[in-house]
Design a protein that fits this description.
The complex is a heterodimer of chains A (114) and B (116).
Chain A: E1 4-7, E2 10-14, E3 19-25, E4 33-38, E5 45-50, E6 56-59, E7 62-67, E8 72-77, E9 86-92, E10 103-104, E11 108-113
Parallel strand pairs in A: 2-11
Antiparallel strand pairs in A: 1-3, 3-8, 4-5, 4-9, 6-7, 7-8, 9-10, 9-11
Chain B: E1 4-7, E2 10-13, E3 19-25, E4 30-38, E5 44-51, E6 57-58, E7 67-73, E8 76-81, E9 90-98, E10 106-107, E11 111-115
Parallel strand pairs in B: 2-11
Antiparallel strand pairs in B: 1-3, 3-8, 4-5, 4-9, 5-6, 7-8, 9-10, 9-11
The chains are: A mainly beta (114), B mainly beta (116).
Chain lengths: 114, 116
C-alpha cells in the first residue's frame, strides 16, 4: 500500500512541447506530493509540490494536477527545453509537514530534443 | 538557503574495508535526516531515518550492522558502510528535514561509492 506507480519510464519530446508524467498511489494517508528533478550524478531537487486540498498548482512552466478521488497526480512541463532533460520522480508522504518518509515513484527519464 | 552537503562526493575502497559518508545541513538545523540508496537508472530507496540523539530506524531488509548511522548533532549525520563488498557499490544520498520552520526536506548531492 506504500507504492507509488509512475509512468512512462521514459519520454522524448521536442523543444517547445509538453511533457506529461503520471503517478498513482494507493495509500489514502498520503497527503503531500512533491516532484523532484535529478540530473546524472546529482541529488534530486524539489521542483514543485502539492497537497490534496487543491487540484492544481502551477509554478512557472511546471504544473501539478491532482485527482484525489482517482488517487492520481501528474506533472506537466510546458514549453519543454533541452535543459529540462533529466529524470523526474514523483513522491508521496503521509505527513502534511513533510517530516515523514517519502515514497518515490520509479522515475521518468525525459529527453528534450532541440 | 537550505543547503545540504555530502562528503566525499565519490570514494573507491577495497572489499572488506569500511567507509564513512558525511551529510551536513549547512544553514539550518535538522532533527531528522534520511539516507537513500540509488542504483543506476533506478529510483531512490530509503535505507534509514536518522534522528538526532537517538538510534536510527532502518527500513525492512537493510542491515543495521552493515550500515551504521550516527546523528550526533543537529547538522551532521554519518553513514558508515562496514566491511564493504562490491554489491554495496551504489549512489548514496542523504536528505535533511529542517527543525524550524517545518518545510520540505532537502537533498544532498550524493556520494558515489565503488567497492573493488
Amino acid at each position: 500500500q506504500q507504492q507509488v506507480k509512475q509512468s512512462p519510464q521514459s519520454l522524448i519530446v521536442q523543444k517547445g512541447g509538453i511533457s506529461i508524467i503520471n503517478c498513482a498511489y494507493e495509500n489514502t494517508a498520503f497527503d503531500y506530493f512533491p516532484w523532484y528533478q535529478q540530473f546524472p550524478g546529482k541529488g534530486p531537487a524539489l521542483l514543485i509540490a502539492i497537497r490534496p486540498d487543491v487540484s492544481e498548482k502551477k509554478e512557472g512552466r511546471f504544473t501539478i494536477s491532482f485527482n484525489k478521488s482517482a488517487k492520481q497526480f501528474s506533472l506537466h512541463i510546458m514549453d519543454s527545453q533541452p535543459g529540462d532533460s533529466a529524470t523526474y520522480f514523483c513522491a508521496a508522504s503521509p505527513d502534511k509537514a513533510a517530516g515523514n518518509k517519502l515514497t518515490f515513484g520509479g522515475g521518468t527519464r525525459v529527453l528534450v530534443k532541440p | 538557503g537550505a543547503v545540504v552537503s555530502q562528503h566525499p562526493s565519490w570514494v573507491i575502497c577495497k572489499s572488506g574495508t569500511s567507509v564513512k559518508i558525511e551529510c551536513r545541513s549547512l544553514d539550518f538545523q535538522a532533527t531528522t535526516m534520511f539516507w537513500y540508496r540509488q542504483f543506476p537508472k533506478q529510483s531512490l530507496m530509503l535505507m534509514a531515518t536518522s534522528n538526532e540523539g537517538s538510534k536510527a530506524t532502518y527500513e525492512q531488509g537493510v542491515e543495521k550492522d552493515k550500515f551504521l548511522i550516527n546523528h550526533a548533532s543537529l547538522t551532521l549525520s554519518t553513514l558508515t558502510v562496514t566491511s564493504a563488498h562490491p554489491e554495496d557499490s551504489s549512489f548514496y544520498i542523504c536528505s535533511a528535514f529542517p527543525t524550524n520552520p517545518r518545510d520540505e526536506q532537502y537533498f544532498g548531492p550524493g556520494t558515489r561509492l565503488t567497492v573493488t
